[in-house]
């Protein structure tokens, strides 16, 4: 017997189901075959008995009395049935005469005889007391002038029929055994077709568990197994990609941290040495230290923000927010940086301005990051357009630049954590990931469209709550009245 496992389970379950099905079919077949043969014999004897009693009542019964038995041998010849013993019994159940010529036990009390005494025809199947042979008997009353005179009883042996039924059943059992053997072979093939690919996939998973992400599930599997193999291969590819992204991030963040730390250390050592006599140089050194310190704080805050967002620990202070005022303030905040790069910022609004519900500081963080990215990748003397559009159920903010754009291979990944289009370009690769998380926490959506070399559009959709819908409706009605 093969060892426990999926193969054994499939074979056993398949075998048991088919075995039980064959058993049920065999039992039904056996019962049906026996019933068919027994009913055929019973019908022949019942029809003969009916014909005999009808003939007796019409032509014979009135010519004789109950005590006159001289005509009984004639009745045996007249009502005889081939291969069947005919017995004539009195109303006590005693056999008066029999076509077999053998002496029969007195006082028969089988169910067919008892029913015949009561005036109805009946069938009985059982074993004869003297021989133990299984027989079928059909008894019917011979009625004259409303009274039962004799009982006509046909008796036939079932041994030959039983032997024939047994032969048929043995053949059926043999067929069932052959079917089970075929089913067993098929179930082995079916089990192997399932177990073999699972074993291959399990071996691949074991290699992955040991850190070998370069291996792939090989083989053209169908249906769910094919989907599982494809999913595992995709997972391995994503793990390799994520590992590469992680390595790029570590390299990038190391560079980002090393640069300001080097500057801080250099100026600190210089200031500690006391070699500066010029107050302006000292002030410059302190300014650089402060600037690099702020840069480090920004990096750490970005990492902490992302960690809190991943752990769902960021709590939003939900208040009415004027998006127009917020973006106007954000525009002024980045104006100095824009002027240095000679980039013009343009803000326009369409629709009826209404407040949304959100966290002012977090939303400012979202738009500062988006506009800062737009400035970072814009050409000198270019434009950045900020458009606010109010719709019945949401406020749509679009920030569009005319910069370098993003390639198609990067557009779907730029909002993933640690992902950078250019790993050597600086930054942590967390800015857009944090931005997307914050927008989604506000119940909104962030999408990016870009054409390489032509520019990028970042679209933020924020929902307007039901109370604001009423404000919009009231304002629209008021404008109609004024018009």
TrEMBL record:
Q: What is the catalytic activity of this protein?
A: ATP + protein L-histidine = ADP + protein N-phospho-L-histidine
Enumerate the subcellular locations listed in this protein's record, separating them with semicolons: Cell membrane
Q: What membrane topology term does the record carry?
A: Multi-pass membrane protein
Q: Its principal location?
A: membrane
Q: What class of enzyme is it?
A: transferase
Known EC number: 2.7.13.3
Keywords attached to this Swiss-Prot or TrEMBL record, sorted alphabetically, are:
ATP-binding, Cell membrane, Kinase, Membrane, Nucleotide-binding, Phosphoprotein, Transferase, Transmembrane, Transmembrane helix, Two-component regulatory system
Q: For the Histidine kinase domain, which residue ranges apply? A: 252-466
**TM helices/strands, residue ranges:** 12-38, 168-191
InterPro entries, alphabetized: HAMP_dom, HATPase_C_sf, HATPase_dom, His_kinase_dom, HisK_dim/P_dom, HisK_dim/P_sf, HssS/ArlS-like, Sig_transdc_His_kin-like_C
- Provide GO CC annotations from the record: plasma membrane
Give a single Pfam family match: HAMP
Matching entries from Gene3D superfamilies are given as:
1.10.287.130, HAMP domain in histidine kinase, Histidine kinase-like ATPase, C-terminal domain, PAS domain
Residues of the HAMP domain = 192-244
Does the keyword Transport belong to this entry?
A: no
One MF term in GO for this entry? Answer: phosphorelay sensor kinase activity
The molecule here is called: histidine kinase
Q: What is the lineage of its organism?
A: Bacteria, Bacillati, Bacillota, Bacilli, Bacillales
